[in-house]
Design goal:
The complex is a heterodimer.
Chain A lengths: L4 H27 L4 H8 L1 H16 L2 H16 L2 H19 L1
Chain B lengths: L2 H11 L1 H20 L4 H10 L3 H9 L7 H12 L1 H10 L7 H9 L3 H13 L4 H25 L14 H11 L5 H20 L4 H21 L12
The chains are: A mainly alpha, B mainly alpha.
Chain lengths: 100, 238
């Protein structure tokens, strides 16, 4: 168990930078008037960010991931979250075996 | 509902994410010590930085001498999406004191944030619910990476069990809750297409901001059309 001073400095610098990105949104909110188009744009943030996070895996990794994503999507409309995730993970394992 | 019940409800709601986080956290811990970080440094990073994607990128750049400035800049780039997420979620924090807001933002993660947004669209987001889900994930991630670091490099590859797909599956399932009408489809199409293309063309984590920006721009543009007098609404009520 040892803590190198430079490593601690690097970690805390990353922690500070990350925290600034986390509170930055609150400050942005104070500047902007949240009506009309700004409101619609902010409403679009959750689906837009989530889609952007998963898109490379869903569309640009391989057929197993793309098909498993479709299966997960269908399952998610009908089943609770945990069941849909379980089906998604199981299907990606099977599809990777089948599709090599 | 009482504070304790709300706290437990938050932790329970996020439990599928906790299950998905455990193997990733274990993997991070083992990778981190194999890259030369000590067990204490690995744990310190998880409890203070607490950002999975960045942490994987950071330990990849770990070396001697340590590029402190580059690591801090990387943190800004990889996590810049938090600014958008915080601005969106900030509108639902009406029941939070200033201290609760600033402490709560420390716990902002893709997963915890998605659950908070989902909850805020159904009912008022209480501090107890938010901290219940946020602290449960923070505790799981921190202890998971610590255990991984203690175990060392003896663990297998999580891809062999499909665990690397677990977060994608979680996000797909959460995404279904944000569907309101055809405009959501247009936002998702723009975001997904731009993200995948940027990921293929550009290194680093820019694809998230590029995709998110594309989706948000599409939403704003479609809103302009929405203001024309004879416009009728889309397929489903929002």
């Amino acid at each position: 168990m040892n803590l190198d001073p430079h490593a601690v400095l690097a970690i805390l610098a990353m922690a500070l930078a990350t925290y600034l990105t986390r509170v930055g949104g609150l400050w942005l909110l104070k500047l902007a008037n949240v009506k009309g188009r700004t409101r619609v744009a902010l409403d679009a943030v959750p689906p837009a960010v989530l889609m952007a996070v998963i898109a490379p895996t869903v569309f640009a990794t391989g057929p197993a991931e793309t098909i498993a994503s479709g299966i997960t999507l269908v399952a998610a409309f009908r089943l609770p979250l945990l069941a849909a995730v379980g089906i998604g993970v199981a299907s990606v394992v099977v599809l990777r075996l089948l599709l090599g | 509902m009482s504070v304790r019940k709300e706290f437990a409800a938050g932790a329970f709601a996020i439990s599928p994410v906790l299950a998905a986080a455990v193997p990733i956290a274990l993997l991070f811990g083992t990778l981190s010590v194999s890259k030369g970080l000590s067990i204490a440094e690995t744990f310190l990073m998880s409890i203070t930085v607490y950002a999975g994607a960045l942490q994987f990128v950071a330990i990849d750049q770990w070396g001697d001498p340590l590029p402190v400035g580059l690591l801090a800049f990387t943190a800004l780039v990889v996590n810049i999406r938090h600014v958008l997420m915080g601005a969106s979620l900030g509108r639902s924090l009406g029941g939070f004191s200033p201290l609760q807001k600033y402490a709560g933002m420390f716990l902002l993660t893709d997963e915890g944030w998605a659950f908070a947004e989902q909850r805020a669209r159904r009912a008022a987001l209480t501090p107890a619910f938010y901290f219940g889900s946020g602290l449960a994930l923070w505790f799981t991630w921190s202890t998971g990476t610590l255990v991984g670091a203690l175990l060392g490099t003896g663990l297998g590859d999580p891809a062999a069990f499909g665990f690397d797909f677990a977060f994608t599956a979680v996000f797909i399932a959460i995404l279904t809750g944000f569907w309101s009408n055809w405009r959501t489809g247009a936002v998702l199409l723009a975001s997904g297409a731009v993200s995948a293309l940027v990921k293929l063309a550009v290194p680093d984590a820019w694809y998230i901001m590029a995709g998110a920006a594309a989706g948000i721009i599409v939403a704003a543009v479609l809103h302009a059309e929405d203001e024309t007098p004879n416009h009728t609404d889309g397929l489903m009520p929002s």
